[in-house]
Amino acid sequence: MSRRTGPRAGTEIVDDEHLDPTRWVTLAISILAAFIVVLDNTVLNVAIPTILRDFNTTLPSIEWVVTGYALTFATLLIIGGRLGDVYGHRKIFIIGLVLFGVGSLLAALSQNVAQLIVGEAIIEGIGASLMLPATLAILSGTFKGRERATAFAAWGATAGVAAACGPVVGGFLTTNYSWRWAFGINVIVAPLAIVGAVMFMSAGIRSARKMTIDVTGAILVAVGMFTLVFALSEGGTYGWWEQIKPFTVFGTQVWPSSWPSIIPFVLLVSPIALTAFYIVEKSKVRQGKDPLFVFADLRFKTYRYGLLTGVVVAMGQLGLSFALPLFLQDGKHLTAAVNGLWLLPSGVFVIIGAQAGGRLIHRFGTVNIVRVGLASYAIGIAFIVQAISLDITWYELLPGLAFYGLGIGLALAQLTNVILSEIPADSSGVASGANTACRQVGSALGVAVIGAIITAQTATRGKDLIQAADVPGGLKQQALAGVKALGANWQPSASVPAHDAQLLRHALEQAVTTGTRYALVFAIVVVGAGALLSFLIPNRVESPTEPVLHDLEGFEPLPMDVDPELIRPTLGIDATRSVH
User: Fold this and answer.
1) What average pLDDT does this structure show over 169-198?
2) Phi and psi for 252 in degrees, rounded to 5?
3) Burial class (CB in 10 A: 0-12, 13-18, 19+), 576
4) Higher model confidence: residue 423 or residue 25?
5) What is the average per-residue pLDDT within 294-319?
6) Which tens digits make up the pLDDT trace of 459-494?
């Protein structure tokens, strides 16, 4: 039975006959896939010392496991999204799940670092880049109106909880069982999700016009994204200008320490490749060919300013997820597992915020909920800045985590809803990939800046406190040299008298506290800037009460009394054709 009411504000347009009866199962499968992808970003961090001992290898080699996954993931997101647009999102989603499961199995059974890198960083990274954009595109096409807001709220809550649970799960498995079970989870979940996708997911619709893959554009955007994310992520490791350590791949030195830092050269490649990508994509449009990325979609203000807001907010998010755990472990000296438990409430409040946001947008509007969420986000970090001290307790941290989690839940899930709200169906995959890629770039930039702030402030404050400490002059010089070289990771040697060692450790703990405060203040500023940017997003977003239909040629809203069937040819969609 169809139900349709008039175009007045506060009315609802629903066509029950075209609702997918298995849409809630589709949502469950999508958020399950999103959970394992996001979990994989953080679950291994606490297991690195154990893997080092098991494989008898070096830290730089293991770093490539974690860094490589993030690089592969960020590099291929836009390409993965476009593959879904061309071949069907369900098909690409299933292929991504297969690769993710195979990569996890190889990583779980790996006998050396090379096998672990191939399984986790390469195969799993490729699978994740296919899966995540597909989940967003599938949800965008499956749900409408109020249900769409609910679906994105559930997706956003799942991603937030997975990020918060990663260290807890990783610490529990590593301590009680084996770090290999961090991958074993995926080996179990991926086949279940594949069966669910085959049985319950709708094949969806695709453009009636046959599209092709832009290989040149794919190569250029891959090079541009890889070099950008690599430079931002690894600048602190290898040195922004002066080479801190040689660049090695699988233990082989490919950029000696006697040369200038590799980072400026890598960073220079990114704008060149991305500029060439833009020129090629515009040229393909003029020639009537299929571009990889539809730059014309940036005419939608919800898309353009939504992506920009997402980049800025992702930068600030690292203020908490990077700086606070560092303080709790290096300042409070909590174990990795206890550290994860202290931060777990933020994940609980993400769920609460996401569910509340999904219910409130029909009353206050999606964009307003995003703005309120960003404000709560900034307030939460401000509370944490006030609470930061060496004597901090979990109870003192809780209010900040509550506001922060609520803000994440309110803002980020519905920001995705905003970004995809006006995107044509045959660009939803690449738009979803761009959304996630922009946040990856923002995260990498946030790590680079916040890491630099923590390092600089810890070293500066540490120097002052060590010089003021009541310890012998020779020991002061030794400590100053150690802090300069290792930062917060420096510790007095076992030969240092206990009293002097205690004074030096306390000085370093205070320095870490200062560095953390500065980093979190930067995060507040960045999130505040994101909140201001959100006011550039128009309030006209597809919502449960006022759905908007767009003429894709002129990018202007059509009158609400126009029958959608009359403009279906403009959308280039043949509802009778499905992807198999």
Assistant:
1) 84
2) -100, 125
3) exposed
4) 25
5) 80
6) 787 777 777 777 777 777 777 776 666 666 667 776
Helices (H), 177-291: 181-200, 215-238, 263-286
Q: Are residues 47 and 136 in the same domain?
A: yes
* Whole-angstrom distance, CA of residue 579 vs CA of residue 87: 7
Q: Are residues 76 and 89 in the same domain?
A: yes
Strands (DSSP E) contained in 239-326 are 247-249, 252-255
Q: Which of 83, 70, 75, 433 is nearest to 222 (CA)?
A: 75
CATH code for the domain of 152: 1.20.1250.20
What is the pTM assigned to this prediction? 0.69
DSSP state of 121: I
Share of the chain above pLDDT 90, in %: 6
pLDDT class for 336, splitting at 50, 70, 90? low
Across residues 57-78, what is the average pLDDT? 73
Kindly tell me if the per-residue pLDDT of 405 is higher than 70: yes
Write the CB contacts of 42 (distance below 8 Å, at least 6 apart in sequence). Answer: 162, 163, 166, 167, 170
Same structural domain, 46 and 140: yes
575: helix, strand or coil: strand
Q: Which residues contact 531 (CB under 8 A, 6 or more apart)?
A: 371, 374, 375, 377, 378
| Alpha helix (H) residue ranges in 58-142 | 59-87, 89-108, 113-116, 125-142
> Among the three residues 237, 263, 291, which one is the final residue of a domain in this structure?
291
Range of the domain at 270: 214-291
- Domain annotation covers residue 236: yes
- Largest pairwise CA distance in the chain: 85
d(CA 416, CA 493): 50
Answer yes or no: do 150 and 284 share one domain.
Answer: no
d(CA 416, CA 444): 19
75/112 same-domain check: yes
In this prediction, residue 79 carries a pLDDT of 82
pLDDT confidence of residue 123: 92
pLDDT given for residue 19 in this prediction? 60
Residues 135, 156, single domain; the answer is: yes
Is the pLDDT assigned to residue 576 strictly greater than 60? no
312 inside domain: no
Is the predicted pLDDT of residue 99 greater than 90, yes or no?
yes
Assess contact for 378 and 431: CB atoms under 8 A.
Answer: no
In a domain, 402, yes or no: no
Q: Which of 160, 181, 211 is the last residue of a domain?
A: 211
Average pLDDT over residues 308-337: 76
Number of domains in the chain: 2
Q: How far apart are the first and last CA of the chain?
A: 28
Q: Are residues 249 and 203 in the same domain?
A: no
H-helix segments, 143-209: 145-176, 181-200
SS3 124: helix
**H/E/C letters for each residue in 372-432?**
HHHHHHHHHHHHHHHHCCCCCCHHHHHHHHHHHHHHHHHHHHHHHHHHHCCCCHHHHHHHH
Name the 3-class secondary structure at 319: helix
380 Cβ contact list (under 8 Å, min separation 6): 320, 399, 400, 401, 402, 403, 404, 405, 406, 407
